[in-house]
Amino acid sequence: MSSDFETYEQDFGTITADITNKIGRIPKISGEEKTQLVLNVDKQLEEVRELLEQMDLEVREIPVQSRAMYNSRLKSYKQEMEKLEKDFKRSRIAYSDEVRNELLGDDASSSESQLIKLREERAHLLDNTEKIERSSRRLEAGYQIAVETEQVGQEILSNLHSDREKIQRARDRLRETDANLGKSSRILTGMLRRIIQNRVLVFILGAIILLTIILAIYFNVRGR
């Protein structure tokens, strides 16, 4: 799991370095090239936000004993992201001022306050839009986690049901074995009883035979 976090870190470092370079170039260029550069930076910042959200999700899956270290690293990346957004916002506002001046020329000073107000409202609207988009992505990520958790729960319930059936079958086999043992015990008891009875009969028969022999000898001796 930490290997995915480190992969996101590498992507974060590569993209933010490129963004920093481009933000520094914005004041130095003009025209269509500047417009395209501003749009490109805006797109890359969105990619970085998605990376941070992925990193946040990864941290939640890291074992508790290692989570603090990754949380600290993630916090520093978020701070770096905030700085980039502020730098870009300043460059974007300056860029808007340049466009305004190009469009209005000498009439810019007469409507300065109105344009400043419009600029602030636009920046505020952009911020709110970004916040809504980030909240939407977090909700989607939370929903995905909930779905995955439900799937895991269903698998656990299925395994428990299967284990319950195995235990029930084992109990049935034990009852059957116990019944067979009881039946065997009764058979053995009957056999033992018959053996004892047979031994008694043999003893009595032997005693009768011995008594008969003794009486025969007695009468034979007396007859002489």
Automatic annotation (TrEMBL):
Residues 124-191 form the T-SNARE coiled-coil homology domain. InterPro entries: GOSR2/Membrin/Bos1, SNARE, T_SNARE_dom, v-SNARE_N_sf, Vesicle_trsprt_v-SNARE_N. GO terms for molecular function: SNAP receptor activity; SNARE binding. Residues 34-180 form a coiled coil. The chain crosses the membrane at residues 200-221. GO terms for cellular component: cytosol; endoplasmic reticulum membrane; ER to Golgi transport vesicle membrane; Golgi apparatus; late endosome membrane; SNARE complex. One of its GO terms (biological process) is intra-Golgi vesicle-mediated transport. Keywords: Coiled coil, Membrane, Protein transport, Transmembrane, Transmembrane helix, Transport. It is a single-pass type IV membrane protein. Its main location: membrane. It comes from the Eukaryota. It is found in: Endomembrane system. Belongs to the VTI1 family. This is t-SNARE coiled-coil homology domain-containing protein. It comes from Monopterus albus.
